[in-house]
Amino acid sequence: MKKNKQTMISIIALAALFSSCSKESVTGVIGSKPTASFTTEQVNNAINTYLSTSTTAGAFNWQWQNESDPKVNGVDSFRTYYAEAGDYRVKLLALTNGGYDTTSQVIHVAQDDSTVFIPGFDSSIMYLTDPDYNVLFAKKKIQWKVADNTLETIKIDASASYQAMDGFGFTLTGGSAQLLMKMDATTRQNVLQLLFATTGNNIGISYLRVSIGASDLNDHAFTYDDLSTGAIDASLSKFNLGPDSSTIVPLLKEILAINPNIPILGSPWSAPAWMKDNNSLKAGSLKNDYMDTYANYFVKYIQTMKNLGINIAAITPQNEPMNGNNNPSMVMTSDQQASFVKVLGAKFKANSITSKIIVWDHNADDAAYPIAILNDANAAQFVDGSAFHLYAGNISALSDVHNQFPNKNLYFTEQWVGAPSNLKGDLGWHVENLIIGAPRNWSKNVLEWNLASDPNLMPHTDGGCSNCLGALTVNGNSYTINTSYYIIAAASKFVRPGSVRVSSNMISGVPNVAFKTPDNHIVSIYLNNTGDKKAFNIQYNGKTMQYVLNSGAVATFVWKQ
């Protein structure tokens, strides 16, 4: 039997005496691998129990040994066989209370001498995204096994804990909401279930960011109090949610019906033009004379949304405050933001508003900006923490801020995927730096950028992002799933709000992060960032499992503590 580029794996099957013969078969296709038809047959005394295969391509030779095989944990172990690498679906038959009980499993056969396990009595689950094999957030099952090897070991220690997580998600841009609201109600509800529910294959998005007024991914720039040139509305009597009343608001209500507790972060791209020194929604800065009025604008926004049944859990004073090139945009220096936070915090306190104030909301190359605000005690008293993007800098900047201000929180609030996207490359970079890197550097959340775009990467403002790829591409009532969906899914489905990051060591080629969930599960996420497959061990509570992860693949393991 040839062993070149083939793997020996073992299946533990239950066997017992019975008086009849039975067959079951199931066919499956995973990625580009050939279709394989697997049939199990069990006959008298289980002596000739075997698994046979036929394929449309490739050489497969699957063979059971007889009853002389040794027992594993008291269960007859029928060992196999060699096969090409790939994912295959098999149906095992076991005698239960005098009759057949069938279970269908997907097994992954790795190349060369890798070991893969079929679940037995002490099983865990794993979700895998493996771009090279077109495995896209697919559920697998694994079984702990003592690994007797010299491979590097990732040791998970739940007794050493760090920050609690608030969630993983996206920015629900005005353009995203516009596209989703154009779907018919049934289709939209199915899409929202896929995104926000946790049952079945749904991914459980658990944190949202929205723009206060337009972002650059609206079809035009606007705020909630736009006036004709030269007009002023100091009392904010003309404040209204404008286009968001028919897009963002109803969509948020549908999302809240699925997840009533999802945190929502609000961020403005610009103050109303009449409050700014250039009378424009692009660039310019807030006039000092309008700090009080602009603080009231935030108060009015939060109160208006609350009256509509939507709680704004937190705000940032300004999206990307050092970027005046976007449309809309507004420049706000650290001194200006510190001054504004003092006014805003006092307004929140006077109006019994509990929404968190989170500063910065820009790149990791300038940790000095939030540090300057946090060094101002009069401003810092109102500040919950700092938010970051990673279009420049290193994710370790979050730890730099944490080390100076350990009592202030860290957040990761935006990162785009550029069209057309390379799934393997983008998945790897975002998982390593954000899903793994941000929590390991104290972030309480991870947000990708826009939730949805159309096939032409619209809508966006004139001068807004023209190649920002949504998690979904929405075209009328149809949609396709894109890279950032799989990035967030790797964490959001199982690392639920309130999960606590726990200790796990780093090894070469496999960045990782681990969490303990509120329902006492351990969730750990792994990426193979090397150019070849990588074998390694995972150790927890004295149990060690060997696993092989293909190049660029991301695995999320879940087991009961």
Describe the fold and architecture.
There is one protein chain. The protein starts with 6 loop residues before the first strand and ends with a strand. The radius of gyration is 27 Å and the shape is globular. It has 3 domains: 1-118, no CATH class; 145-165 and 499-561, Golgi alpha-mannosidase II (Immunoglobulin-like); 169-497, TIM Barrel (Alpha-Beta Barrel). 20% of the residues lie in helices and 34% in strands. With 561 residues, it is an alpha/beta fold. The protein has helices spanning 174-181, 185-196, 248-258, 291-307, 334-350, 368-374, 377-380, 397-404, 423-440, 483-492, and strands spanning 7-12, 22-28, 36-42, 50-55, 71-72, 75-83, 86-96, 99-109, 123-130, 135-143, 153-164, 167-171, 207-212, 264-268, 314-315, 356-364, 383-393, 409-414, 443-450, 452-453, 472-475, 478-481, 500-504, 512-516, 521-527, 534-540, 543-549, 554-560. The protein has 10 helices and 28 strands. α4 (291-307) crosses α5, α5 crosses α6 and α9 (423-440) packs parallel to α10. It has a 9-stranded mixed β-sheet. Strands 12-13-14-15-16-17-18-19 form an 8-stranded parallel barrel, surrounded by 5 helices.
